[in-house]
Amino acid sequence: MDGYVCKPIDVKALDEILDGCEERRHKDFAVMAPNNDPSLAPVDAVELLERIDGDRVFLSELVAIFRGEYPGQIQNAQEAIARKDAAGVEHVGHALKGALGNLSATGASAFAAELETMGKSGDLALAGAKLTEVENEVHRAMETLDALSLESV
Asked: Which pick of 49, 57, 93, 131 has the fewest CB atoms within 10 Å?
């Protein structure tokens, strides 16, 4: 609570306070890439925090669930690639795309979508390299997600 409006409430004063809060919220929640280009950020923090209504405890729980499931999914993808199991690669790519999308990890989700597409097409020639890209981008996203989970509101 950073603003104050006394009774009787002046609608114009209330709007000004709410506008200021909205600006601070976007500034505080924006986690940018080093060059401050939001399109290069590993996580769209504003979108994510809006989606979960700013609940950092809930975010911590979501991140913990992902952290627990992610290594198994990567192992499944590696095994599917080694077996040349296109359906398996598609399945893992789809699961990762959805989980990462739910966490607003847009880059990692996009790489996982590419992995899913490779599985659908049956062309797994570059699937190993794409999985490495997924892993690298997930690492970046996890750093951001951990920071968002720990920040106080």
From this structure: 57
